[in-house]
Amino acid sequence: MKFYITTPIYYINDIVHIGHSYTTIIADIMARWKRLNSFDVFFLTGTDEHGSKIATAAKKKGKMPLIFCNDMSLKFKEAWNLLNISYTDFIRTTEKRHFSAVEKIVQILFDKNLIFKKKYEGLYCVGCEKFYLPKDLDEEGYCVFHKTKPLIQSEENYFFKLSTFQNLILERITDPCHEEYIEIYPEERKNEIIGKLKIGLENISLSRNIVEWGIPLPFDKKQTVYVWIDALINYITGIGYPKNMTEFQKYWPVNIHLMAKDILWFHAIIWPAILMSVGFSLPKKLCVHGFFTLNGNKMSKSLGNVISPQELVSKYGVDATRYLLVTIMPFGHDGDISWEKLTLKYNIDLANNLGNLISRIVKMAGKYFNFKVPQANFDLKLVKKIVTLLREDFIINMNSMQLHKAAQDLQNAITLVNKQIEYDAPWKISKTHVHELASYIFSYLQAVDIIALHLLPFIPVSAEKIWHTMGASNDINKIAKKYFTDFIIPKSGFSVSDSQLQDTEGLFARIV
Ligand code: MSP
Predict the structure, then answer these.
(1) Active-site residue, 289 included
(2) What's the rounded Cα separation, in Å, for the pair 288 and 285?
């Protein structure tokens, strides 16, 4: 089975911040999770490089637009490498392959008579790269996302007959029995779109004649394709359209388009209309998350309040940054964050709960068994408890992208082992009862092994480290793939008797 997931392609005029990182890490965790469940995964991310916003930013830096784009898109790639993002492909809209896709799609729309020319005057927000009606702005006429005043722009453009799709789209996002049903998650976002859709759809401008930095229209080279139409098409270019149709047909339709609420309209209305026009299937699911806010404001370069992923990594490390970002706010809601909140969560979940569990087990094994996995009969009671706890909730939460809840399930499992250790109090047992001690410690090791398998999508490097620390020597990824297929634990467990436990130095040390 295939699983195709995308992030939005990010505007490269902004520096990479934790908002972009949040979306990308969620997509990465889902991609890793699906790989562990034996799906053939395609995970696409990339950068959105055309339009007036980018051209202006390049000009400000005194750079040719493409040079500016090369530099900036590299910064996104570097950030994703730092965060251990396992994307399958990184698409840039300035690539040749993307030009071919956009030209082809736009030509089809033209040939199908879905495009017409019209003089237009409207309020344009460059931040959103979007025309607004006065009713969409706040009381003072400002864009609600960028807190800037859209200016009147007037030009003769080509328009896409979006309005003809109103009922078709409404049907596809409201009727779960429809063959081409698009699920919008969470429900409140879907209702918002339905509400707007019912008011009516305006035709939208598909080209700009005052924006040079873009893809020329194949049927009128004096105009360039409107940046949002250009951008949305990345989702099919990335999997091979139009050159490699076999690859395209293998992965399309997309299983999940992931994004924040600011750009749902484009994905829920404009993108399906384009896809329907050219006769392609529709996305299966749109997953919409909230914004990180800092003091109540959306994070963006224009507001000057960004936190970069590099800052988080230098304080918490890569894996903890991944973990903290996706668990600090519930998926679908906004969350106001601060360094204090992040550090508190780091200390509670990672240092005090997980880190402490690992270090006390290693200490006991060190004291009583010379840092070796003891030989013992496998008492399955504790392991079974962990397996049950995680099988019931964790999998449902992962599959429904409730990653903060899935992480909480893991925390509960970790707490359970910590509590079991306190209950057993192995340190009170005399060294002469070596079998009893061995059996306790052996079962803690096995319980942590199971937890490590589940931690893998969130904190891949640390999960593997924990796995080896516990004396389990096989390839954790292979074992996890098998485990998530049949949920069978080998008779002798995962940690191998007599193997050496490895050092845990530096695994989620407390931060003050
Ligand atoms: N280029 C368009 C998307 C085109 S997709 C065909 C765009 N780019 S963007 O750089 O502005 O990125 C928007 C996305 O970045 C959001 O949808 C979200 O995924 C992420 N985030 C940007 N700021 C964010 C927060 N403050 N909080 C959470 N996510 C944020 O729109």
Answers:
(1) no
(2) 10
| Residues facing residue 245 across a β-bridge | none
Can you tell me the mean pLDDT for 437-451? 95
Q: Ligand 1, residues 22, 266, 295, 324: which to mutate, most atoms within 8 A of Cβ?
A: 22
Q: Has residue 306 got a pLDDT over 90? A: no
Nearest CA to ligand 1 atom 21: 19
**Exposed, middle or buried by CB within 10 Å (0-12, 13-18, 19+), for 21?**
buried
Give me the sign of the Cα torsion angle 449, 455, 457, 462.
Answer: negative
503 Cα–ligand 1 center, Å = 40
CA 260 to ligand 1 centroid distance, Å: 6
3-state secondary structure 427-439: HHCCCCCHHHHHH
* pLDDT for 122: 86
The sign of the torsion formed by the CA atoms of 175, 180, 184, 185 equals positive
- The total of other beta-carbon atoms located within 10 Å of residue 243's CB is 11
**Predicted confidence (pLDDT) at residue 382 exceeds the cutoff of 80:** yes
Q: Is 17 a catalytic residue?
A: yes
- Supply 459's token pair: 């904190």
pLDDT at 271 > cutoff 90: yes
| Tens digit of each residue's pLDDT (9 = 90 or more) over 158-170 | 999 999 999 999 9
333 is catalytic: no
Lowest mean per-residue pLDDT among 244-248, 313-317, 435-439 = 435-439
Which residue of the set 298, 405, 465, 468 is catalytic?
298
Adjacent-strand bridge partners of 328? none
Binding site membership of 299 for ligand 1 (Cβ less than 6 Å): yes
Question: Cβ(130) to ligand 1 under 6 A?
Answer: no
- Mean pLDDT for all residues in the chain: 94
Q: Which of 99-103, 179-183, 351-355, 389-393 has the lowest mean pLDDT?
A: 389-393
List pLDDT tens digits, range 183-240: 999 999 999 999 999 998 999 999 998 888 999 999 999 999 999 999 999 999 999 9
Which domains occur in the chain, in start order? 339-486 (1.10.730.10)
Cα torsion 182, 185, 187, 190: sign: negative
Is residue 230 within 6 Å of ligand 1 at its C-beta?
Answer: no
SS3 131: strand
Give the Å distance between the CA of 10 and the centre of ligand 1.
6
Q: Which of 135, 133, 205, 195 is nearest to 170 (CA)?
A: 195
Pairing of β 292-294 and β 297-298:
antiparallel
What confidence score (pLDDT) does residue 80 get? 98
